[in-house]
Amino acid sequence: MIAIFNIGCHLSISGGFYALGEAILSLGGNTAQFFTRNPRGGSAKAIDNDDVKKYLSFAKENGIGTLLAHASYTMNLCSGDAKIREFARNTLADDILRMEKIPGQLYNFHPGSHVGQGVEAGIEMISDALNSVLKEDQTTTVLLETMAGKGSEVGGRFEEIREIIDRTELKEKMGVCLDTCHVYDAGYDIVNDLDGVLQKFDDVIGLDRLKAIHINDDKNPLGSHKDRHEKIGEGTIGVEAFTRIINHPRLRQLPFLLETPNELDGYAKEIALLKSIYK
Ligand code: FE
Ligand code: FE
Ligand code: ZN
């Protein structure tokens, strides 16, 4: 069986889903990521049912696959401030409710920053929030993003991701999004030991939980905990490593989403580059 390469980039949803679908095709991709609301927080635009309907038939006709929604960066489920935690919980609930209008997609969020009270307390708060928000009948899969381990970020170690999932009751609604820049920054050497890192992921979390890849090069060396994305081929990860990543038998069927510092033309070039090295 020939695998389909699922490739896309981060795009704006401000024109609606149908416009997003057209943008995906114009860039040569077949998937995309979008923010559910302003990335720095704030309110979300109402979802237009006609637009969703139009998008769904367009996506079917043109082979557009699963989309990845990304929560706003300000959504911190493990803040030390109860008000911020409550706001984050409400945002999560509202985002998932809205995602159900376009059933069966993926929703990714940064686990959060504990800012002082410690990683254990942070993990507890994150899983508490998930337990209060996740619903048995939801079709959206919620993904925890692997983080660079900057500051007090939770999710820089696979063990932390595992613990959040362990404490979440509706585990079947949960998955993981691996960000190549973040894991390299966190100290997982996907350049020289991709198999070893994936083995570790499998041992700790389970590769069956891995549902999407953020494909970003890195401005900084292994283990630097900085989280600065770079264009594909211009960073410390490099094209050779990305060739191994996108073609790896355990990864090649997943959706790959670019979050590199690019305008649309730059994204189109990176999508073309990655397609040319996909075997
Ligand atoms: Fe992210
Ligand atoms: Fe990311
Ligand atoms: Zn990042």
Keywords, please?
279 residues; TIM Barrel; eight-stranded parallel barrel; 39% helix; binds fe (iii) ion; binds zinc ion
3D structure, described in words:
The chain starts with 5 loop residues before the first strand and ends with a helix. It has a single domain, classed as Divalent-metal-dependent TIM barrel enzymes (TIM Barrel), CATH 3.20.20.150. With 279 residues, it is of the alpha/beta class. The mean pLDDT is 96. The protein has an 8-stranded parallel β-barrel, surrounded by 4 helices. The protein has helices at residues 17-26, 49-62, 82-99, 119-133, 158-166, 180-186, 194-204, 238-247, 264-277; strands at 6-10, 31-35, 68-70, 106-109, 112-113, 141-145, 153-154, 174-179, 210-215, 217-218, 229-230, 255-258.
Produce the secondary structure layout.
Elements: E1 6-10, H1 17-26, E2 31-35, H2 49-62, E3 68-70, H3 82-99, E4 106-109, E5 112-113, H4 119-133, E6 141-145, E7 153-154, H5 158-166, E8 174-179, H6 180-186, H7 194-204, E9 210-215, E10 217-218, E11 229-230, H8 238-247, E12 255-258, H9 264-277
Parallel strand pairs: 1-2, 1-12, 2-3, 3-4, 4-6, 6-8, 8-9, 9-12
Antiparallel strand pairs: 5-7, 10-11
Helix pairs in contact: 1-2, 3-4, 4-5
The structure holds fe (iii) ion (FE) (2 copies) and zinc ion.
Q: Segments where pLDDT lies below 50 for 5+ residues? A: none
Describe the global form.
globular
Mean pLDDT: 96
Helicity, as a percent range = 25-40%
Named CATH architecture? Alpha-Beta Barrel
User: Which sequence of SSEs, written as H and E, runs from N to C?
Assistant: EHEHEHEEHEEHEHHEEEHEH
Major sheet: size, sense and barrel closure?
8 strands, parallel, barrel
CATH topology: TIM Barrel
- Into which percentage range does the β-strand content fall? 15-25%
- Tell how many strands the DSSP assignment holds: 12
Please, what is the CATH homologous superfamily? Answer: Divalent-metal-dependent TIM barrel enzymes
What is the CA-CA span between the terminal residues? 13 Å
Report the C-alpha radius of gyration, rounded. Answer: 18 Å
Tally of contiguous helical segments? 9
